[in-house]
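Fold this sequence, please.
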Amino acid sequence: MNPMWPDFLDTECVPLPSNVAACRVQVDAARWCEAADAMREAGADLLSLWGSDDRDRDQCMRVHAAYLLLDRVVVVEHAMPASHAIYPSLAMRFPVAGRLQRATYDLLGIRADAGDTRPWLRHGGWPEDVFPLRRDVAATQTWPVTNTPYPFIPVSGDGVHEMTAGPVHAGTIEPGRFQLAVVGEKVLRLEVRLGYTHKGIAKRFEALAQRDAHRLAAHLCGDSTVAFSWAYCAALESITASAPSPRALVLRALALERERIANHLGDLGGLANDAGFAFGQTQFSSLKEQLLRHNAELFGQRYLFDFVVPGGVASDLPARALPGMLDEIAVLERAVGELRGIYARHEGLQDRFLGAGRLTPAQAAALGAIGLAGRASGVARDLRVDQPWSPYDRSSPVLATSTEGDVAARVQVRFEETLESLRLCRQWLQALPDGERVCDVPVAPAGQLGIGLIEGWRGPVMLALETGPAGGIRRCRAHDPSWQNWPLLEVAILGNIVADFPLINKSFNLSYSGHDG
């Protein structure tokens, strides 16, 4: 292990149920900082940060930090007296921690001892002295909405003016506000304001039974429904030592890769449209629509909200469906390959893509970029490769990366990942194992913590499930990788012209709903 690694992270860590290697350790304030320093030194990502109200157990509030190393997840927990719920900030070590800490305060009143104190999720939806995720606040309670202006960081100087996009956008785009400071046509600063789609998911989980909550997980983020529902089921199955059959796991992986393919197809078309190449949008929109229609024929749904269930999957694939699925893969491989060549040769498209929205490898590493956006900027990490779970552990997925970090690089990674997903799907279909569609998952005892970690199409989707009594849920933290990557947009846009903002934003295509939770 790294020579800077403190002994307690090995001697006091206890294994944690998870579909990947994971452990947890409880620390005081000094060790909270020591663990964070060690994780930073070891090159870990801060995967998520959240709080919990444990006053009914020991009069404490707790803050939890999940770190992602190449070979494991480490969950570090720090308890504080409820009367003095303050902990050392991690924002100087991991930039993503800043917004996570602000959200944790808005929900639970647990405050970091330094950093930005502006509200992140509250939006005037509840009073400043009310913390809706505490156990003594009813899920049905409501308050008058107050309209308090958000204190954006001001920018001034000769020739500087400010522009606002959102929070309401055209079409079906979800709400988010983009505050731009520009000089002429060049962007001097961008500040993103999110939280408009906060739905109280964590509180809702607490009212559900363990065996039913996968449905809520599946609806956290509509374009990542397989990833979130699999993460929930992986956590519950790990806690209960339940083992879905090899066939069920392959069917889940097929669904996950089809979700990845559908999103990449949609984005490759949308990026062409934002660059004025309508032909690209038409072609990729058609390919995506055909895939979704085939989903409906195979699984009964275009988007697979109800497919992954505890213990397996909701429906099997009939043998007669396999030839058609293999034919579909061949058609998509040919079409995507041809369109990739057209994109590469189209001078107007490449003029818009090349150099736009560049996030350098140094910036990506410093800011903690993960998932697709990180891989396009030299962060060569993918859970399917680094910590493969079944069936990926027997499939040798190929990592798609670039070091250019611009819109063109994010397009390149999408093309390569689409083709690799199609290869994996063919491999699984040609050797689809036998096994039951679903196995029984018993009720987990109270007080168990499990982690589900799945590489969704944007990046790692994490769900931390703590069980409650009588088959209930005490706490469930769901984390979308957009938390890490929204701040990247604020850096990638600098020095670009305002007209390129929609294109650069689309090249990241981050989630509003999944982020806000």
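The radius of gyration is 23 Å. The first strand starts at residue 14 and ends at 15.
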